[in-house]
Amino acid sequence: MGVNVPLVSVEHQYMITERIEGVTSTLPTLRDPDRRTYWKEEVGGLVWGGYEPNPKPWAVKGVPEGFHFELLTSDYDHYSQFMDDAIARVPALETAGVKQLLNGPESFTPDGNFILGEAPELRNFYVGAGFNAFGIASGGGAGMALAEWVATGEPPFDLWPVDIRRFGPPHRVTDYVRTRTLEAYAKHYTIAWPSEEMRSARPNRRSPLYAHLKAAGASFGEKLGWERPNWFAGPGEDPVDRYSMGRPGWHEAVGREHKAAREGAVLIDQSSFAKFRLTGRDAAKALTRIAAGNVDRAVGTLTYTQMLNRKGGIECDLTVARLGPQEFHIVTGTGFATHDFDWISRNLAGEATLHDITSSMAVLSLMGPLSREVLSRHSADDLTNTGFPFGTARWISVANCPVLALRVTYVGELGWELHMPTDVAVTVYEALMSGQGAPTLAGYRAIETLRLEKGYRAWGADIGPDHTPVEAGLGWAVKMKSGIDFIGRDAIASQLAGGVKKRLATFTADPDVVLLGRETIYRNGQRVGWLSSGGYGHTVGKSIGLGYVRYPDGVTEDFILSGHYELEVASGRSPAQVTLAPLHDPQNQRVKA
Predict the structure, then answer these.
(1) Half-sphere exposure of 431 (CA within 13 A, CB side)
(2) How far is it, in rounded angstroms, from Cα 78 to Cα 145?
(3) Residues whose CB is less than 8 angstroms from the CB of residue 149 and which lie 6 or more positions away in sequence, other chains included
(4) 440-441 and 266-269: which strand pairing?
């Protein structure tokens, strides 16, 4: 059918014992993640199995002809790796009789989550697959969600972690999918460290600057197959992640990059940005209907906007640069390439065509109060605030190379995203990094700490289909006063008239309190929500979290600011302060200057 469903089969075994004295039908299910094993009652005995660190793929050369719901040959040697740990946990296994070691193929996915939704390649083709053991636990909810998706044409709520559109080009290659899926299977019961990266099937997609950044000490992460610099090791440091439930091993390195962005200039390779080009006679009209912000502006303007569903929920969060009367340059997050391309293209009308140009353009983000000085050394174009104000998009020359410069920021400082053909990326990079006053190299983990201090939202965490711009404090980006219709307008108008029952706020705690996201928010001793994201602000010297304050009778600014707040962290409560304003440089002067 031309639809890609990235999953593969893995052999999974479990043992069924004879009856064991003391095992009753009311025995609870038992899991021991440290031993990678699980148990449940089965007719007076036990069914038990595990997730081995060296899983065996099945049907590597294709499913055998005529294979239907059959079992595989039991592999006692492979299963024996569980025995000592299992007996230590359940000593009765040592003497229990064995009915059967059952082996069968189960479908797993590259990230361990199942797959739901309408295929981006084919309208009205819906997928529900890759459930493995989750099928029993999630079947009812997944069935309901998929049925409503079929009936209404959109999911009933945010299903991003299982949405089929979370995958991209690498997942069309079966060998890539199998390699990554085996790693995900092996981690099924392991500790899920904060910010942990997958290691298999890497590197895959690399920007032209990969070798330069690696030589400069980059520690890379991966998103949709792209190798992206997370942080840079300094002298005597190894560019290797050291994970922790406390402050991670890269904390000090990120702090250096954070400081450089606030006080000097940093250069960040963001070539993995998803980039689309919308063209055609009706491009402006079509985009105006889809975007909640005003994108039908003069050529050379840059607009930050959301795209909403009928309920006002945020489906896309992106920037739009108008390059011509019938041409727009659209930029969104790396991981949202398939999702956002699908959302825009399915809602286009008239003569308008969307093209994915991600791989043809590299991006270097030059940010910080000294970024203009750095860029001016290699460009004769007018980069002054008058000649190149915030929210401007223009082709300029950098090191004699054509560069589409976007005056925008996600770190809260003066800066530009420099979009350029991939064949000139190395030339521009080497020029910017040459001589005295060169910028500091920085990575994505510094971006995260910087954006938290400014209260900038992240799609998939702080905003998404279940959150509206009004609830997220982004009402200023919606063109309600224009009178122009757009998808979701009626829902936003209703909220503006009747108020909201949740609103995003910023919380700070003492620096020794580690915030990771999902911590419970207490207001005056009552649970009112949870953090959508968390981290540390190196400039303000505090732990920072963003989260929605919820109250069924309505949430106003006064309601939020009048409460006494605590955050539940590691089963304890820590005092927290709340604000609706950015924590750093509230007047945003550096961005405007």
Answers:
(1) 18
(2) 38
(3) 116, 117, 118, 126, 155, 156
(4) parallel
Task: Convert the pLDDT of each residue in 467-525 to its tens digit.
Answer: 999 999 999 999 999 999 999 999 999 999 999 999 999 999 999 999 999 999 999 99
Nearest C-alpha neighbor of 266 from the set 396, 423, 450, 540: 450
Helix (H, G, I), strand (E, B) or coil at 328: strand
3-state secondary structure 15-31: EEECCCCCCCCCCCCEE
Please give the class, per CATH, of domain 8-108: alpha beta
Helices (H), 239-351: 251-263, 283-290, 337-347
Torsion of CA 371, 377, 381, 382, to 10 degrees: 50
> Over the stretch 22-54, which tens digit does the pLDDT of each residue have?
999 999 999 999 999 999 999 999 999 999 999
E strands, 5-97, in order: 8-17, 30-32, 37-42, 45-50
Question: Please, what is the angle between helix 337-347 and helix 283-290, to 10°?
Answer: 110
Residue bearing tokens 């940005």? 273
Q: Are 363 and 424 in contact (CB under 8 A)?
A: no
Indicate yes or no: pTM above 0.85. Answer: yes
DSSP per residue, 360-388: GEEEEEEESTTHHHHHHTT--S--STTTS
What are the residues whose beta carbons fall under 8 Å from the beta carbon of 218, sequence distance 6 or more? 229, 230, 231, 232, 233, 239, 441, 443
> Which residues, 6 or more positions from 250, have their beta carbon under 8 angstroms from its beta carbon?
219, 230, 231, 241, 242, 445
Report the number of secondary-structure helices (H) and strands (E) in the chain.
14, 26
The Cα 57–Cα 173 span in angstroms is 16
Contact present, 328 and 318 (Cβ < 8 Å): no
- Name the residue among 196, 199, 197 with its Cα closest to residue 245: 196
> Please, are residues 567 and 521 in contact by the beta-carbon 8 Å criterion?
yes
Overall size of the chain counted in residues:
593
Question: Hey, is 425 helix, strand or coil?
Answer: helix
Q: What is the pLDDT of residues 434-471, one digit of tens each?
A: 989 999 999 999 999 999 999 999 999 999 999 999 99
| Residues 7, 176 contacting (CB under 8 angstroms) | no
Helix axes 444-454, 251-263, angle to 10 degrees: 60
As a whole number of angstroms, the distance between CA 406 and CA 391 comes to 7
H-run or E-run covering 306: strand 302-308
Give yes or no for a contact between 345 and 354, defined as CB atoms under 8 angstroms apart.
Answer: yes
For residue 120, is the peptide bond before it cis, meaning its omega torsion is within 30 degrees of 0?
no
CA distances from 33 to 52, 88, 289, 400 (A): 11, 14, 49, 57
Select from 321, 323, 345, 339 the least CA-distant residue to 331: 321
Strands 45-50 and 218-223: unpaired
